Amino acid sequence: MTAERDATGRAMVYPTVSCGAEAVQDSIVVMDLFMATAPEHMPKGDRRVVTVLPPELALNLAQQLTAAAEKVQAARAGKVTAPSGGSSGSPA
Question: What is the pLDDT of residue 56?
Answer without folding.
Answer: 97
